[in-house]
């Protein structure tokens, strides 16, 4: 009888589980949308490895699918755990487990480390208040979580992005999160909307959103590989594409191809911008395909 009772779930538990599952699926969908988008300058997409030798579209998709459970667990934590310090440490542990899961799926290749951080915070924040899924509200909640320290996190990871953040004195992924993802809320999402409103294709609109981020982001992935000179070339190249009408125009597409060639020559890839594009697509998805499950009335986990 005890064994039978162990598998019985209350309606609230089922509602919570369904909601977390919906959010996790939305994150994975956004990650796959991001990596499939083409042509992305210097980045892996469905037609190219970009500036990478150890990554391709199939591996990125495999990694995204392997992380679905991680994002479901993060959403579940957002639903269940109300005290912010407790929530921060819980999602930190889930994120580190997710990174190990990613490395196992990819045989040691870093495919989505930055995305686990950015989208992990956002999916947690979204699930925490599923009745308020406005992009700026989710980003503000994510920032509140990100600004809390995790006692169990390593003081230094040794990751290239972290080293670049320190060496070049830029905010990096941590700074973006703690500031409420300004390049998502104030840059990429508005560009996505503008491009759609003027009749650009969805592919062009998403590429323009990426380019808008690239045009001003101090991308630590680029800094780590190419320093400030490569960053300046990336930013000026992205601004040139947008100034010539973006990815929907013939002139803009020519500039986009030239920027892609140059970043590949420099062996730099704007992975930070790609993570923020995935975050943008996730928040955009929530405006159209918000999980329909009613928010469960939860208390402290």
From TrEMBL:
Q: Which UniProt keywords apply?
A: ATP-binding, Glycosyltransferase, Nucleotide-binding, Transferase
Quote the Pfam families the UniProt record gives: CitG (PF01874)
Q: Which reaction does it catalyse?
A: 3'-dephospho-CoA + ATP = 2'-(5''-triphospho-alpha-D-ribosyl)-3'-dephospho-CoA + adenine
Keyword check for Magnesium, yes or no: no
Its job: Involved in the formation of 2-(5''-phosphoribosyl)-3'-dephosphocoenzyme-A, the prosthetic group of the acyl-carrier protein of the malonate decarboxylase.
The record's listing under PANTHER family reads: 2-(5''-TRIPHOSPHORIBOSYL)-3'-DEPHOSPHOCOENZYME-A SYNTHASE, TRIPHOSPHORIBOSYL-DEPHOSPHO-COA SYNTHASE
Full protein name: Probable 2-(5''-triphosphoribosyl)-3'-dephosphocoenzyme-A synthase
- Per the UniProt entry, what species is this protein from, by scientific name? Paraburkholderia hospita
Source gene? mdcB
């Amino acid at each position: 009888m005890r064994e039978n009772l162990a598998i019985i779930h209350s309606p609230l538990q089922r509602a919570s589980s369904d909601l977390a599952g919906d959010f996790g699926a939305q994150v994975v969908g956004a990650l796959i949308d991001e990596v499939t988008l083409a042509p992305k300058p210097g980045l892996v997409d469905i037609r190219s490895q970009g500036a990478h030798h150890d990554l391709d579209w199939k591996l990125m998709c495999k990694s995204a699918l392997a992380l679905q459970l991680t994002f479901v667990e993060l959403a579940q934590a957002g639903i269940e755990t109300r005290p912010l310090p407790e929530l921060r440490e819980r999602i930190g542990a889930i994120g580190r487990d997710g990174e190990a899961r990613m490395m196992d799926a990819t045989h040691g290749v870093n495919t989505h480390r930055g995305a686990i951080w950015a989208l992990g915070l956002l999916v947690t924040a979204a699930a925490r208040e599923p009745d308020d899924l406005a992009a700026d509200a989710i980003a503000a909640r994510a920032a509140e979580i990100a600004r809390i320290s995790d006692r169990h996190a390593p003081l230094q990871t040794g990751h290239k992005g972290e080293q670049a953040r320190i060496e070049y004195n830029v905010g990096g992924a941590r700074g973006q999160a703690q500031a409420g993802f300004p390049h998502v809320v104030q840059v990429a999402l508005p560009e996505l909307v503008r491009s759609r409103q003027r009749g650009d294709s969805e592919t062009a609109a998403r590429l323009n959103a990426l380019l808008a981020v690239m045009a001003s982001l101090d991308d630590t992935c680029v800094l780590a590989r190419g320093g400030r000179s490569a960053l300046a070339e990336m930013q000026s190249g992205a601004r040139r594409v947008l100034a010539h009408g973006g990815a929907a125009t013939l002139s803009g597409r020519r500039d986009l191809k030239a920027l892609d060639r140059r970043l590949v020559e420099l062996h730099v890839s704007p992975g930070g911008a790609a993570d923020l594009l995935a975050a943008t697509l996730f928040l955009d998805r929530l405006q159209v395909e918000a999980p329909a499950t009613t928010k469960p009335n939860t208390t402290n986990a």
